[in-house]
Amino acid sequence: MFFANQPSVLFACALLSRTWLLLAIAASSRQTGDKILGLLYPDHFWFYVGLAMGALPLTRLIFPKLWQKLSIPNQLWGILVLLLADIAIQVHAINLNYWRFEALNAVTLWLSLMMAFIVFKSAVEKQ
Question: Which residues of the chain have pLDDT under 70?
Answer without folding.
Answer: 1-5
